[in-house]
Amino acid sequence: MRPGIHGPRDGAALPARWWWALLPVVLVPSIACSQESPTSGLAVSSDAALQEMANGLLQDISERSGLSFTEPVRVEWRSEEELVRYLASKLDEEFREGEVERIRDSYALLGLVPSDLDLGALFLALYTEQVAGFYDPDSVALYVRSGQDEETVETVLVHELVHAAQDQAVDLDALTARARGNDRQIAAQAAAEGHATLVMLEYALEKQQGAQVDLVAIPNFIDLMGPSLAGAASASPVLSTAPRLVRESLIFPYVQGTEYVRVLWQQRPGRPPPFGDLLPHSTEQVLEPDRAFGPEPDAPVDIDINGGGAAVIYTNSLGLAEIGILFEEVAADGEPIGGWEGDQFALVEGEDESRGLVWWSIWEDEAARDAFVSRGQAVAAALTDATLEAHMLDGRSAAVLTVGVVPSAPVATIVGGA
Q: What is the pTM of this model?
């Protein structure tokens, strides 16, 4: 349940000092990088010191990320107040009137957020809490909060300059657009954030240790990283008190995305960027990277839900990551869920303005579908006026969960994907 801002990257960039719990690391002899390179002058700024710092990072970032800088990147200071105002305006642009409430009502019917949650205010608070800086594809510029210590500024620059290099190679706005659907959007964000985070961590740890760091070689990297982020989140007032779905969805791209890129670089020499054929298209692919770039990539099924006499006022997908949160949060079932192929839910509204939800999911075979339906009865039992039943949809094994008042079920069809 990402807030969905696909303009600026990292509205609330993670402070560098959160990452030191990742030690021990793999060290190799230090190899000095050339100070002069074709990219050394591509960072421009109205502040000479900031420009010099950014230009000194470009060659190292290019080597670590597998991306080249081909165009200038503007880097500027902004006050915390200026950054907060900018992010607030981006939120206002991002959502149509009433959309935030429809998102909230959808997840409230699933028992994942309070029905009276001011989701818009929470989104703004989350994205502006401890804001350190961000890269904005709209203006092709990187903004850094003034007043931070040099170590933090340098770490923020590394992370955000990776995003700038990404945006020169691919269209970040298009890849992370909300129009792609929640699950695909989170997966793309995981690729972008994981890529930038892995480069940032290697750079920062190398500076601390005085020797080159190869995080790709650490077999239990995610086990080290997860607790570190969880501890950092608990120290963040807004994030620590947000509903679990919101909290884990925000952290997912950094933790699971970093592991996705690490596994990719283990299996594909040369540190290829996680885009193009290597871009994950679902959170299932992020969690199980071989489904994205293995010998038989497993793309998710796309479902359309509309019509049928019901007033469909909002549709989106959950994806495997959010389904896992649903089962664990609502039914205390934390076991892995296998066989997912795709899903889509629809929020419907009756003539009396009552709202209900219909959620279709596709499974790889009847056995996987039946196992999901069996386990999901505990979820349905915990929700209000809910039923979960096995179905077939366009010849595929499917399940449908109905919650609340649904006077006339909308029509579901498979429209693409695997």
A: 0.91
